[in-house]
Amino acid sequence: MQAPVNVLRLSLHPLGIASHIVNLVQWRAHLFERLRQQITATADPALVALLDELKAYPVPDEATDLPHHAGKVRSSAARSQVPRLAAAS
């Protein structure tokens, strides 16, 4: 990963913690929905570029773009020795 690293990049990038998030499909959909809300509110081209970047990251086969209303993700469980990750929505 290259700078600037933010929580979105860190949690979805294959060299970040994506491989440790058990519910990556739901977490990814949740992050995309929140980012889309920010884009709608601000029309910030940097956020549009960030969304495009994040969507280009490789994901497991079952991780597709879920509908915008895919549901809230209240926590994300982690695999192996990584502590459980809590996501506030």
Secondary structure: elements and pairs:
Elements: H1 7-12, H2 24-42, H3 45-56, E1 75-76, E2 85-86
Antiparallel strand pairs: 1-2
Helix pairs in contact: 2-3
Q: How many DSSP E strands?
A: 2
Radius of gyration: 13 Å
In the predicted model, the low-confidence regions spanning at least 5 consecutive residues are 64-79
Query: Share of helix among residues?
Result: 40-55%
The outline comes out as globular
Mean of all residue-level pLDDT scores: 78
Discrete helix count: 3
Strand content bin: under 5%
Going by helix content, strand content and strand pairing, the class is mainly alpha
Q: How are strands sequenced across the largest beta sheet?
A: 1-2
Gap between N and C termini: 25 Å
Described by strand count, sense and barrel closure, the largest sheet is: 2 strands, antiparallel
Order of helices and strands: HHHEE
Can you describe what's shown?
By secondary structure, this protein is mainly alpha-helical. Helices cover 42% and strands 4% of the residues. It has helices spanning 7-12, 24-42, 45-56; strands spanning 75-76, 85-86. The protein has a two-stranded antiparallel ribbon with strand order 1-2. Strand 1 (75-76) and strand 2 (85-86) form a beta hairpin. Helix 2 packs antiparallel against helix 3 (45-56). The two termini are 25 Å apart.
